Amino acid sequence: MTERGGPAPDLAEIQRFVYREARLLDERRFAEWRELFAEDGAYWVPTRHDQASPDEAVSIFYDTRKTMQARIDRLAHPDAHVQAPPSHTTHLVSNIELEPEPAPGGAWIAHAAFVMAEYRHTEPRWYAGRYQYRLLRDGAALKIALKKVVLVDCIRSFTAMAVYL
User: Fold this and answer.
1) What is the pLDDT of residues 77-112, one digit of tens each?
2) What domains does the chain contain, in order, with CATH numbers?
3) Where would you tag: which of 43, 60, 120, 135 has the fewest CB atoms within 10 A of its CB?
4) Where are the alpha helices (DSSP H) in the chain?
């Protein structure tokens, strides 16, 4: 069971966690990436900068661990046309910050800026924005209760996205 709160992580621990997450995504190790999430964790990409809840408007992504697994299974399938050939990505993460106090409920809030480059078919694509993490302790490990990805251009129409930002 995931513990709410726990010892405060320090910035170095948060940086290692966020950089490892980015590497897992770039190496297409999606099953290991999913394990970074708490059992009730979610990955959310809203369509508005000020969107406070996924219930307010349609989201670009809103995946629970169950729907993450379905997406991961589809990405691994040899007939996944959206990933033929597979995308290559690089996540550049910077400006990592940790809120000094836990949020109500005991989660630790971290922020970061990112740019993600994706190359698929013959087309490079670029995404940029801000991450917000709600992190919990599971023993000594950190787990993601919520990863919110606010894209700079979240209000625009997007072509099909198959990989995680």
Assistant:
1) 777 666 667 788 999 999 999 999 999 888 999 999
2) 11-151 (3.10.450.50)
3) 60
4) 11-26, 30-34, 65-76
State how far the Cα of 61 lies from the Cα of 165, in Å rounded to an integer. 10
CA–CA gap between residue 4 and residue 7 (Å, rounded): 10
Residue whose tokens read 């964790």: 41
DSSP summary character for residue 12 = H
CA distance 115 to 101: 27
Which residue is listed with tokens 């697994």?
Answer: 69
* pTM over cut 0.85: yes
C-alpha 39/C-alpha 35 separation (Å) is 9
Strands (E), the chain: 37-46, 59-64, 88-98, 108-120, 123-138, 141-151
Burial status of residue 150 (CB atoms within 10 A of its CB: 0-12, 13-18, 19 or more): middle
Please state whether beta strands 37-46 and 141-151 pair in parallel, antiparallel, or not at all (unpaired). parallel
